[in-house]
């Protein structure tokens, strides 16, 4: 469970939302985020929704070879392909199979949320960084991500963090553009995903406040170009920001590295 301080932060974040669940937008600079878990279903999608409601540009992915959801037994999972199966079709299939089971274990509720965020689960390894995402205009949080680039990648499990780092190394940094890769370790259940989503939003707010300060110092044009030199002052602040955040969210262990697109 979240600590008292974390719960307070969560309550404060929720109190700043409008009636439709979205946070009021101050119209200022926003970092671009990417959230990642194994199947792009639970943890990454909860965080994707929270960040989009706070008006952050955000995309999300999974790192697994296939999308796996619980089935009637541990040896009978429901398995789907990334990029080819929509959340809506998964919802309808499971509802037809056993509506009582899949309502009881929360899968229908989760898929119902997901299909209102974007079309279907995407695989990180298939993402072409820097390529326009013109077919994702209806995704929540899509505004600002059309160019196919983000400033911060937040994974929700250590093996996903490892997969992202390995993939970035294999790509060879063709754009020479820095990206912060942060793992926030979240247990893969609906309750912990909700707590983790609040923690990730709090971290995003802290990172964005620092980025806005540093962008004003170096100038918007230099910052927005994405070069390492213009962002070095922000990069140097990130470990301290994460350390302060970790004190507020001690039950969400975090790991960080600076990587490159």
Report on this structure.
The protein is of the alpha/beta class and 261 residues long. The protein is 45% helix and 13% strand. It has 9 helices and 7 strands. The two termini are 35 Å apart. The N terminus is likely disordered. It is found in: Nucleus. It is an enzyme of class 3 (hydrolase). Its EC number is 3.1.3.16. This is RNA polymerase II subunit A C-terminal domain phosphatase SSU72.
Condensed summary:
The chain has 261 residues and is α/β, with parallel strands linked by helices.
Quote the distance from N terminus to C terminus.
Answer: 35 Å
Helix/strand order, N-terminal first: HEHEEEHHHEHEHHHE
The major beta sheet can be summarized as: 5 strands, mixed
How many β-strand runs? 7
Strand content: 5-15%
Over the alpha carbons, how many angstroms does the gyration radius reach? 18 Å
Average per-residue pLDDT, rounded, comes to 91
Unreliable segments of 5+ consecutive residues: 1-22
Q: What's the total helix number?
A: 9
In the sheet with the most strands, the strands line up as 2-1-5-6-7
Quickly give the structural class: alpha/beta
Dominant shape:
globular
Helix content: 40-55%
Keywords: Hydrolase, mRNA processing, Nucleus, Protein phosphatase
Subcellular location: Nucleus
Catalytic activity: O-phospho-L-seryl-[protein] + H2O = L-seryl-[protein] + phosphate; O-phospho-L-threonyl-[protein] + H2O = L-threonyl-[protein] + phosphate
InterPro entries: RNA_pol_II_suA
